[in-house]
Structure prediction request, 299 residues.
Amino acid sequence: MIRLAAVFASVLQPLRTYSMPEKIALITGSSSGFGLLTSIELAKAGFKVVATMRDLGRRERLDQAASAAGVAVQLDIRALDVTDFDSLPGFVDAVVRDHGCLDVLVNNAGFAVAGFLEDIKLEELRRQFETNFFGAVAMTKAALPTMRRQHSGHIIMVSSIGGLLGTVTIGSYSASKHALEGWSESLRLETNSLGIKVVLVEPGSFQTDIWTRGAMLGDQVTKETSPNIQRMLRMRDLIQALPKSDPMEVARKIAAIAQDPNPKLRYVVGRDAKIQLALKRILPWKWHEKIVAKYLKLD
Ligand SMILES: NC(=O)c1ccc[n+]([C@@H]2O[C@H](COP(=O)([O-])OP(=O)(O)OC[C@H]3O[C@@H](n4cnc5c(N)ncnc54)[C@H](OP(=O)(O)O)[C@@H]3O)[C@@H](O)[C@H]2O)c1
Prediction:
């Protein structure tokens, strides 16, 4: 009897492999934070993960995390800068050629330009949009022909609660994420009938490198000549002191969305984000302004 079961199992195993091909996920910005953790979570869920980063010299943390989780074999780590726009279609085509398809694209790469908007130069704002908005747009456009052909695919945009709320001293970041929100919401309407699901993930404050390495102060922001210098220094301390949650919550959410055949358009992640959004929706805008000004001592 046991021998018979073993024979059946050996016959069925190749069939199972054939009927359930490995799903392929491509993720940007995997050297740290959500990108790193999501790469591991997706690999643990059985995906083959093309984990990308602009500098392969920074892959050690991901390699170590993958080995510790026993999923190193599930990762294909490649170099990719999302602002190297001309290279993106060829990059995605090579992934599809090597792995056969593309089931999930996670547009995660991002950073934050910080400073009062009065002090932010146009070129700094443009740089913010190049990565956070145009980078995600260009990656998506590179992936769409394959997903259209497959009549399937998930495109997961890592936006932010800052994409739904204006924010003091990270207004440039907030603007780039608002643009991403509008573009993605529209794209979802256009691609639903093609079998392609566009999803926005909107985290609150989570403990990643974006608060240190990933934050770029505008050139004028902390100069003595800035009219905002005193309140900028106050804000900087306040932002650093903000409570920040465990980024695993976001990584798990993205992995769950990637496996959901029918995901929603938006996922707000983190208690702080949910509270802020509820307050914005419930309170008259003038009250909202007063609370923000008082809490942040903006005078
Ligand atoms: N942490 C939060 O509280 C929070 C909240 C809301 C939304 N988010 C969003 O979450 C995403 C991930 O950020 P994180 O918090 O995990 O911060 P992080 O640890 O700083 O990770 C950001 C990643 O993006 C990469 N990156 C930056 N510019 C890139 C480019 N041009 N091409 C390719 N990769 C690039 C970074 O690569 P390098 O290592 O080369 O710099 C890094 O791997 C971002 O889109 C961010 O806006 C974060």
Observations:
- The beta strands are 24-27, 48-53, 75-79, 104-107, 112-114, 153-158, 196-203, 215-217, 266-269.
- The domain at 23-111+129-209+245-281 is CATH 3.40.50.720 (Rossmann fold).
- Residues 12-19 have pLDDT under 50 and may be disordered.
